[in-house]
Amino acid sequence: MSVKSEGDGKMSRQEAGRKGGEKVARERGSEFYRRIGKKGGKKVAEERGSEFFKELEGKAAKAGKTKLGVTPSKGSIDRKPETSIQR
Questions:
Q1: HSE (side-chain half, CA atoms, 13 Å) at 81
Q2: I need a labelling partner for 81 at 20 to 30 A (CA). Which of 7, 46, 49, 59 fits?
Q3: Which own/partner contact pairs does 71-74 have at CB distance under 8 Å and 24+ positions apart?
Q4: Which 3-state string (H, E, C) describes the chain?
Q5: What is the pLDDT along the chain (87 residues), one digit of tens a residue?
Q6: What does each C-alpha distance from 26 to 11, 23, 62, 64 come to in angstroms?
């Protein structure tokens, strides 16, 4: 892994990933992420079956809420600022 240092033009993997993700978001928009998320979900369902999602939902419900603020039992997103999320 390369660490960014003064004047050498290198950046960390984390920074490169962040910059790449920001560029994709600007160029393709949120609909792109919805489409690929749905496609990925379908593929996982085909490969692992509906039981996999039920198991995940159960684990998330047991934990309360996920780090992203999704309430598993309702499927809704809690739009509170990230600072209010308990870790």
A1: 2
A2: 59
A3: none
A4: CCCCCCCCCCCCHHHHHHHHHHHHHHHHCHHHHHHHHHHHHHHHHHHHCHHHHHHHHHHHHHHCCCCCCEECCCCEECCCCHHHCCC
A5: 455 545 578 899 999 999 999 999 999 998 998 999 999 989 988 999 888 888 888 887 777 765 556 555 554 444 444 444 444
A6: 21, 5, 36, 33
Q: What residue type is assigned to position 15 of the chain?
A: E
Tell me, what's the pLDDT at 75? 47
Amino acid of residue 77: I
Rounded to the nearest 10 degrees, how much is the dihedral formed by the CA atoms of 62, 63, 68, 69?
70
pTM: 0.46
Cα 10 to Cα 4, 23, 37: the distances in Å are 5, 18, 31
